[in-house]
Structure formats: structure tokens, C-alpha cells
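ZP: hey, is the adenosine-5'-diphosphate complex queued? I don't see it on the tracker
AM: it wasn't, my bad. submitting now with these inputs:
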Amino acid sequence: MRAKLRPESLDEFIGQAKLKKRLKVFLDAAKGRKESLDHVLFYGPPGLGKTTLAMLLGKEMGVSVKVTSGPALARAGDLAAILTGLKKGSILFIDEIHRLNKVVEETLYSAMEDYVLDIVLGKGPSAKTVRLNLERFTIVGATTRMALVGGPMRDRFGYVQQLDFYQDEELEDVVKRTAELLQSKIDDKAAFEIAKRSRGTPRIANRLLKRIRDYAQVNSDGRIRLAETKEALEMLGIDEMGLSDADRKYLDVIKKQYDGGPVGVDNLAAALTEDVGTIEEVYEPYLMKKGLIKRTRKGRILV
Ligand code: ADP
């Protein structure tokens, strides 16, 4: 189902207007020269469409996309096996590229820059390095934590683009599109309400829509109206701003236990029994965007 919800062309991809415009130029130029795309890095919070865009680049270029992630490429050999199997012009999507280990990352540098792989065969004094030539390919990297992508890595991408949270009107379109694909009837007001409470994130909008669809099916005739939407969202603990119980707990800890802050992220993570990465990648970007908290050098403060 998830794959089906993904837009099939760049025109179908809702929002991110500036980014889309730039990508079109980038795609047309590469197509015009009959070249492969330069390497692309997308960054931004989870669920904003980085993977979807990588797939769309493949569709637009008419090439295949192989998907992997930083943690999955544990050894340089894993990367070598994938890269030597890539066809000319195809795309390798590496999610969570900030989680590549150093050895793999360094192997990737020469592959990205010169399309060669230096493989060490054997050990000790008899070890030999063999150089393998690779077909031209495109790396599309994605990361939720740009600060953890080192300079040398960043510099190897010809194109580095940030994805922003979506406007409510854009998410309303996402909700309506998904409802149509799910063959659910939805009122405009209900779609806008879901959009407003989806933290600027298409993945969340789609998830809420599915839960509200369940609720409407069980509690009425299945049509998603404003009344059922509000009831369902209340049941799910999602407030007017789209904050969940977990977000409210985060804010509460700073307010009650730390008197409004500053408080270090480690302390927050411990109080919420979450890991630091999740706090930084999932909770905080939206709370900052809404102007509820600030990250300072001394820690997090309530605004
Ligand atoms: P990311 O890789 O940034 O975490 P994904 O590309 O996996 O995000 O997107 C999450 C979900 O949201 C996907 O299932 C996709 O269908 C949907 N989605 C993301 N961006 C859009 C968009 N612009 N228009 C429609 N649906 C979108």
C-alpha cells in the first residue's frame, strides 16, 4: 500500500515547489546531454519525501533505483558488491547516509568522484590493491541529520537540497490524493483539519488519514467528515497543533522538571526514555518550527 501512495511522477509530487523547479532543470540538463545525473543529497526531517524523490529521479531519467542505507552497508565489500552490479546511469539511493562507517565512506569517495573502486586483496606484506572501473552511476543520499554528514562527503554531491515542512494547503492536497487512492470519501473541511494537525509532514498526514478512515467506518457510514475527524484525533491524542502525547510530555518535562530550561538533550532523552537521535530528529524540528522551544548552547529552553 505504501508503495502505491507514492507519487509516480514529479508533477504528481505535491509541494516543495522551489525544489521541484530546480530538480526539473537539473533533470532536463542531464537528459539533454544524455549524461547520468550528478550525485544528489536530500536532507530534512523524516517523512517529508526524500525517498519518494529518489524514486522519482529514477522514473524521470528512465533508470533503475537500488535502495540501501548507511547501517546496511557495514563493510566496504557490501558497497563494492552493489556498485559493481550497477548498470550505467542507474541510481543508488543511500538512506541515513550519515550512518555510514568511516571505511565504507572513504571507499565511496573515490567511487563517487572517479568511478573507481580500490579493493585490497589479501593481508600483510603480500596484500595487493586492485582497481576496478565502475559504470557511471548516481548516488542519491538522504539524511535527517545534516550536521553529521562530514565536509568531504558533502562536497562530493553536486546537488544538496533541503526539504522543508509542508504548508497546510499542500498537506490538504496530499490527504485528498491519498483518500482518493484509498477510495475513501472525505469532506474538504476534514481534509484541511487533518492537514493542520500533521506536523507539516506527508507521512503523518497519510497515517492520520488511515486511522480516521477506520474511525469513520466503525462509527458512521465511512464518509470522513469534520466531526468524525475531530473525534478521532481526540481519541488519538493529537491536539489542534498536531502535537501528540509524547510532544506534550517533552514540553512538560522542560517546564516542570527544569523550570523552562535550559536542559541538556541527554537529560530530556532519559526523562522521556527516548534516544537522543529521535529527540533531535523527530520531536524537536517541529517544536522549533512552531516556536515552542529553542536550542541554545546551554540546552533546550521553552519559548
Ligand atoms: P522520507 O524519505 O523523507 O522519510 P518518504 O519519501 O518515505 O519520506 O515519504 C513518506 C510518505 O509520504 C510516502 O509514503 C509518500 O507517499 C508520502 N509523501 C511524501 N512526500 C509526498 C508528496 N510531496 N506528495 C505526496 N505524498 C508524499
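AM: back. Residues 202-219 form the longest helix (18 residues).
ZP: great, adding it to the tracker
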